[in-house]
Amino acid sequence: MPPRIILLFSGKRKSGKDYLTDNLKKLLSDRSEVIKISQPIKSHWAKEKNLNLNELLSDGEYKELYRIEMIKWSDEMRDQDYGCFCRVACQNAADKPIWIVSDIRRKTDILWFKENYGDLIRSIRISADLETRKKRGFQFTSGVDDVTSECDLDDYTDWDLVINNGKGRQQLEEQLGSILGLLSHL
Ligand SMILES: Nc1ncnc2c1ncn2[C@@H]1O[C@H](COP(=O)(O)OP(=O)(O)OP(=O)(O)O)[C@@H](O)[C@H]1O
């Protein structure tokens, strides 16, 4: 059974993508599945370089060590086939009505989902001011924060929903409530 709705989340580093999508997943429990496009990238990379996959997937120093190399390699793969990682991530996804894609980064990611799932797509931008992101551990890294993988969606404006997760943000329950509004027809 294909999904009935696919929520695509995007946001700058330390805007709170994992925080909000993890909490959404808790709320929706077994009706939903979290999909990470970075998962197939990281598992391929871990195999190739003989690295610890769990360390790469978790939020630590370790993944920062390999971020630049991984971006470069995955960009080359995408140049040949922009849907390659989206496709594998979706093929591996469980059979659930609600898919939560937690790390959309490019216009071509959105394009691929639109081409393959059409009206099922809802796109959500998580925003947070720089000061808040810095408090959460963000440090500008040249080669990471000034390249396509981090900036391609900065000028995208066609979001179904924008959530402030910085200063002046709403309570978590209200943030999640606005996301649930996108599912109200289900
Ligand atoms: N609304 C919030 N309230 C409290 N803590 C938050 C909130 N949003 C995010 N955080 C915390 O800020 C840190 C960074 O958030 P998170 O890992 O979700 O960001 P991210 O956008 O997934 O970052 P990255 O792109 O680097 O993986 C985490 O420790 C998270 O728990």
TrEMBL record:
Binding site for ATP: K12, R13, K14, S15, G16, K17, D18, R136, Q175
Enzyme Commission number, as recorded: 2.7.4.2
Signal peptide (residue range): none
UniProt KW keywords: ATP-binding, Cholesterol biosynthesis, Cholesterol metabolism, Cytoplasm, Kinase, Lipid biosynthesis, Lipid metabolism, Nucleotide-binding, Steroid biosynthesis, Steroid metabolism, Sterol biosynthesis, Sterol metabolism, Transferase
Protein's cellular compartments: Cytoplasm, Cytosol
InterPro entries given in the database record: P-loop_NTPase, Pmev_kin_anim
Top-level enzyme category: transferase
GO MF terms held by the record: ATP binding; phosphomevalonate kinase activity
Positions that bind substrate: N165
Gene Ontology biological process: cholesterol biosynthetic process; isopentenyl diphosphate biosynthetic process, mevalonate pathway
Lineage top rank: taxon: Eukaryota
Alphabetical list of Gene3D superfamilies matching this protein: P-loop containing nucleotide triphosphate hydrolases
Pathways per UniProt: Isoprenoid biosynthesis; isopentenyl diphosphate biosynthesis via mevalonate pathway; isopentenyl diphosphate from (R)-mevalonate: step 2/3
Gene Ontology annotations for the cellular component aspect, listed alphabetically: cytosol
Pfam families associated with the record: P-mevalo_kinase (PF04275)
Protein's recorded name: Phosphomevalonate kinase
Annotated organism of origin: Plutella xylostella
